[in-house]
Structure formats: structure tokens, C-alpha cells
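Fig. S4 source data, part A: sequence.
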Amino acid sequence: MRKLLITALLSLTFSSAVLAEKEFLDHTNLMNHGDGHLMDMDGGMVMGQNTDTLPGGCDEIAATKEITVYAGHKYSENFPGRMFAFDQQEYQFEPCTKLTVNFINEDSIRHQWMMHGLPKYLYPKGMFHLEVTGPGKISGTLIFPPNDKTYLVHCDISQHMEKGMKAQLKIGKGSGDLPSIPGVTAYVIQDDYSDSIPEPIVAKPLTSKEKKAAKIAAAENESAISGVLIIGLAAGLVLAPLLARKFKGMAAGEVVSTIFELIAKVIGLITKLITGLIKMVSSKKSIELSDK
């Protein structure tokens, strides 16, 4: 038994060490699926790559730039309440810049660096997208349009952006700052890490007048309920013999049908009564007064 336990512990330790030392992959052998969509079988993907086509309004490439973006849990340490982040939260480039992004994922899960809002005639779905599953590196290139605009750069994996993995990228002068960029702009919903506990709400005791009014209201409700109950019982006692004679010898289906017919007749009578009252009231209102 002891040998089995020792073997199991050694196996668990070895497997944990193997998982912890996951291999870092450089995703360079990507398959081209057309329209700037590149990917491999190891979790690397580039979408919307554009290396040579100028966007409308760009006569030439204004500048050629290259950046390296790091993504991981450790970069969120400066932002309380966040779990993931990029190593940089703001970028700025000239319009018509050709940019190559080297995206490095330092976590053992999937992360992305992606932009939305690019011109769709050039970038399918208006998107440029880099993705790496597990520790690794992938690179992609795009050419920015000529307009001054601020783009959201983020990880689109569920809850990763909400947990801090987002930044803003300004072209030219930009179009303002985006909200809730960690370390750059204020959060729309501010975090509260105070240890204060709100005081419990204690109901105020009723005054003697309020107690008396509550007793009177309860008594009136009870009397109203009992009155309705008495009327219902009396009507049931009166109608029971009549209904018993009417339903005598009928099958169950006939009884149900007859009950529905009676209900329909009662509803019809009530409707006629209400309609008549409405006509009477409206006719009185329509009587013209004399000029005298």
C-alpha cells in the first residue's frame, strides 16, 4: 500500500512539473487560408493581415514600425481587481503607417491582440486579429487608414477584456480616449475595496396611532373577506338544488358543457349591462344645453 502511494505521489509531481514547463512555441509555419487569414495546428492564428495594399486616402506608407506586445497575468499586478493585461495600455502611430506586431503570450491559456473598426473593403469583418494558445509568439502586419481615430485593442476571449486585457491605439490625433483602459482612463464602474460594512436597516417601532390604524385596517379586511364568504356560501346553498336538478342524469361531458354555457350567458348579461350604462352616461353628456 505504501509503495502504491509513493508511486502515485511521484507520478503526480512529475506530471505537474511537465504541465508547468509547457513548451514556448514560435508560430512561424502558418498555413494561408486567403484574405490575410493564417493559422497552424498549434493554436496560432492571424486574421486580417495586410502587408502591401494601401487603404483609400493613403498615397504611400508614411512609416514602417514594429512593436512587441506581451500578454499575461503578471502584467495585471499594477491594476487591482484585474486578472490579465498587456504590458502596454496605449499606442500611437501616424496615419498610413505599416505596423508589424509581434504578439507574445506568457500564460498557459489562450490570449488575443485584436482591433475592430478597420475598413471592411480591406480587412474582412473590419478586424485585425492575433491569437496564441499557451506560451508562444506570433507576428502579423497591417496598414493603418489615413483618418484620426482611436481604436480599441483587446483580448476577445470571454471575460479577458473585462478582467483587464485591453488598450487603446491612436492613429494621428486619435478621436478621444476610451473608457476603462487600465492605468489610462477611469473605469466606468469604480472598484470598491473598502472593508466597511454598511449598517443594517432597522425598522422604526410603530407609534400608538399607527398600531391602532393597522388594527382597524386588518379588522376591515377580515370583515370584507367574511362577508364575501357568507354571500358565496348563501348563493351556493340556493343554487345547489337547482343545479342538482338540472344536471341530473347528465354525463360528465354534458355537465361541463352546460356550465360553460351558463358562464357565457352570465358574461353576456354583464357585458350588456355595462354597455347600457355607458350609453346612458354618454347620452347625458351629449345633451346640448340651451343658450339661455
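Fig. S4 source data, part B ends here. Residues 12-19 have pLDDT under 50 and may be disordered.
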